[in-house]
Every structure is written in structure tokens, then in C-alpha cells.
């Protein structure tokens, strides 16, 4: 082994520098991105060099083909043994590369390439008073409410951004078949949005995917990439109650409201806060009572104190946990406690 090491790493003539190799960028590149290779073969004189690679430290070295011709990738050194050339980064991670010649080879460079990535999120343009429940699928939209599909190609800018890269939004039309739904380009932050959609067109519902198109720019040649499928489905939001009233009694409040005809309604939720200076009640933080009778039009609150301000909000809720966009609210003060005596 000592003789082999000497052949590869000891200069063949006095005064020649030690073999070296630097690859820029040396990490965090996509497969196909242009990288620059500089170094010295460790021997003076112009000579032919070529690239070799292997999958691990014990595997045999194999010559690397030229991506243009398919033949062995070769270049020439300068008289001092130095070299500089460009070559696309491999798509595979933790692959060893070196520059070889008839008299030796450079130390190996380990590539730490990054995989392409696409994250799709459904973004509500006008969020309701109560967010959609986390138990719903991430691609859930509300019928009639605007949304867009937000596509992140750089994992929140933790990966390299390719601004201007063409992106195609595709919709599944059948088993193994897709159609172009929309087109766009990657922004400077690696993000783009498709829409605005309104949740009323059946064509906006279904299974979608994103295709990052081939990227060729300044020597980069990054191949296309597909996201995992993303399901978009529409669910209705229940209609709010109307004509909410709160009638104070000596020891209670009677809430009454009118219900619309609405098949989406599954239950009624009452939120409450106490005190004149308290903020308005909101769900689910201040939920006080749930009425599972979807047809209920009254509720009597007997847990009250005299001369006290009570604030109520009445929501309708669907079976999927979607709350009405805005509740009906009312504020009332209970009567003072009646005095006794002769």
C-alpha cells in the first residue's frame, strides 16, 4: 500500500506542488449544476488528466464519461501541473471524485449534493374568525372563499434558489394522466403562487402536482423534478345565526337566535366572557357551551352574577369542525340584586 500511495501522491519531479483538488461549490449543489474544479496533479509538465469516481472509500475507481460525448472526460494540465475546468455536480450524494493522470491522482472530493424539493401549501386569502381545524387535510378549502396554492422550491430558503425556473401545475385527469392547470416561474425567494381560486369551480378540486421544469442557465443543467401529489377538496362553511338577543333575568340570561336553513350546520357553540372591559369572546378559546342539537334556537345561562357584564358569541359549526366565518355577538348586564328588609 505504501508503494501505491507514493505513486499517487508524491510529485514526479522536484519542486512540483503536492496533488490538490478544490471543487466550487463543493456542497449544497443540485445534480447538474455547474461546478469548477481547480488543483494540481502533483507533477510538472503538460499532461492529460481525467475524472474518476467511486461510491465509497473501498470501491474501485471508475472513469467518468463526458456528459456531451459519452467518452472518458479528459482535460490537459498547465506546465506547472495545475488545472481548472468545469463539470456538472452529480445528483447522487456522498460520491467520491478525483482527478487522475498517468503519474498519479489528486485527493478525493466527497460530493454532498442536495435533492430538489417542492412543498405545496394551500393559502387562505381571507382567514375566518376561527382557523380551519388542524384535523382537516392540508389541502382543504372552503367553498366560495378565495385561496391560492403556494409552492416553495427551496425549503424556506435553506436550499439553493433557481429564480426564473419554469414551473407547471398539473391536475390529475385519470389513472396516470395529468393536464396542465397553470404555469409560473420561481421567484427570488424560491416561492411562487398559483391562483387566486374561489372554491366554486369543480375544476379547482382534485389531485394536483408540481413539475419543476429543466433548468439551463450559466452552465447549469438541472433536470425536471416532480412533487408528490397534493389533494385539494372543498368543504362548506355553515351559515351564521341571526337576530341574536340576550334577555336578562334575575338569576339567568336567555339567549335566542334565528337559524337559517343550512345542511352544513351540525352543532351550535356559545362563547362567553365576563366583565365590561373584557375583550369580545372568540372560539375556541372562550367556548362556554356546545349545543349538539343543530336546531336549537335558545340557551339559558344560569351561571351569572348580579350587576355583571356578560359578552356572548354564538357560532354554528359543521361536522368537520368548520366554524361560521363570523359569530353573532351580544353584550348585556344582569340586574342588580334586589334588596330585602322592612
From TrEMBL:
GO molecular function: hydrolase activity, acting on glycosyl bonds
UniProt source species: Nocardioides antri
InterPro entries: FN3_dom, FN3_sf, Ig-like_fold
Any single GO BP term: polysaccharide catabolic process
Signal in keyword set: yes
Key words of the record: Carbohydrate metabolism, Glycosidase, Hydrolase, Polysaccharide degradation, Signal
Protein name according to UniProt: Fibronectin type III domain-containing protein
Coiled-coil regions listed: none
Residue ranges of every copy of the Fibronectin type-III domain listed in the record: 237-337
Source organism phylogeny: Bacteria, Bacillati, Actinomycetota, Actinomycetes, Propionibacteriales
Signal peptide interval: 1-16
Amino acid at each position: 500500500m505504501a508503494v501505491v500511495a507514493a505513486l499517487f501522491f508524491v510529485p514526479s519531479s522536484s519542486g512540483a506542488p503536492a496533488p490538490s483538488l478544490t471543487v466550487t461549490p463543493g456542497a449544497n449543489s443540485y445534480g447538474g449544476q455547474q461546478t469548477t474544479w481547480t488543483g494540481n496533479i502533483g507533477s510538472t509538465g503538460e499532461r492529460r488528466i481525467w475524472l474518476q469516481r467511486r461510491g465509497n472509500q473501498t470501491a474501485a475507481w471508475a472513469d467518468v464519461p463526458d456528459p456531451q460525448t459519452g467518452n472518458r472526460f479528459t482535460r490537459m494540465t498547465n506546465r506547472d501541473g495545475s488545472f481548472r475546468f468545469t463539470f456538472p455536480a452529480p445528483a447522487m450524494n456522498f460520491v467520491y471524485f478525483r482527478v487522475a493522470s498517468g503519474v498519479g491522482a489528486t485527493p478525493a472530493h466527497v460530493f454532498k449534493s442536495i435533492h430538489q424539493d417542492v412543498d405545496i401549501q394551500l393559502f387562505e386569502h381571507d382567514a375566518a374568525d376561527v382557523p380551519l381545524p388542524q384535523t382537516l387535510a392540508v389541502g382543504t378549502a372552503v367553498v366560495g372563499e378565495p385561496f391560492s396554492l403556494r409552492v416553495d422550491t427551496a425549503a424556506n430558503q435553506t436550499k439553493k434558489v433557481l429564480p426564473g425556473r419554469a414551473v407547471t401545475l398539473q391536475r390529475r385527469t385519470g389513472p396516470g394522466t395529468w393536464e396542465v392547470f397553470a404555469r409560473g416561474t420561481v421567484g427570488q425567494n424560491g416561492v411562487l403562487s398559483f391562483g387566486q381560486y374561489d372554491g366554486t369551480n369543480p375544476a379547482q378540486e382534485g389531485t394536483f402536482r408540481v413539475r419543476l421544469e429543466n433548468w439551463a442557465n450559466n452552465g447549469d443543467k438541472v433536470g425536471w423534478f416532480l412533487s408528490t401529489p397534493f389533494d385539494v377538496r372543498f368543504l362548506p362553511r355553515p351559515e351564521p345565526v341571526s337576530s341574536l338577543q340576550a334577555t336578562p333575568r334575575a338569576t339567568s340570561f336567555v339567549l335566542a337566535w334565528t337559524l337559517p336553513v343550512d345542511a352544513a350546520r351540525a352543532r351550535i357553540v356559545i362563547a362567553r366572557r365576563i366583565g365590561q372591559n373584557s375583550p369580545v369572546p372568540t372560539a375556541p378559546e372562550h367556548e362556554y357551551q356546545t349545543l349538539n342539537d343543530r336546531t336549537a334556537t335558545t340557551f339559558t345561562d344560569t351561571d351569572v352574577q348580579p350587576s355583571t357584564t356578560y359578552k356572548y358569541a354564538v357560532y354554528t359549526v359543521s361536522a368537520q369542525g368548520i366554524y361560521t366565518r363570523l359569530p353573532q355577538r351580544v353584550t348585556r348586564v344582569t340586574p342588580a340584586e334586589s334588596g330585602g328588609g322592612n
